Amino acid sequence: MTSPEAGTVLRNVFHVPAPPEAVLAHLSEPSSYVGLSPLVVAVRDVRREPAETRYSCVERFRFLGLVTYDNLIDVTLRPTANGVEGEVRSPGGVWMDYRFALAAAPGGTEVEDVLDVHATFGPILRYAARKAREVQLARAEVLAARAPTW
Questions:
Q1: CB 95 within 8 A of CB 88
Q2: Would residue 136 count as lying in a domain?
Q3: Could you say which of 29, 80, 108, 115 is the most buried, measured as most Cβ atoms within 10 Å of its Cβ?
């Protein structure tokens, strides 16, 4: 069994052909995460507070192509000096801290996407980290593809 403090850090750096302000605006809007994460199919109950935004997402998992499971997660999103960060809490003892650091780069923005995935049990952590990595890599492609439409 893995202790609750154990986690897996995942990092991906990629280029988006849009200025940092546009990328920041997109990543600061909860509705943007529908499809930006291939698992997220809906955003609900958005609560905007002065220093952060809280909302719920529906993650849809498919097993064996036949069975679907909708997982309701709680998300906190906060602006930072150079991007956004926050936390995700999921049922079943899985939680994640995340950060998108943005930097101006020739032709757009360099995005550093860092996920720190935690779970109460080792097998769950391994599964959650594998899915988080798949989402992280897909997010880079989706965000870059969306940029010309902003």
A1: yes
A2: yes
A3: 115
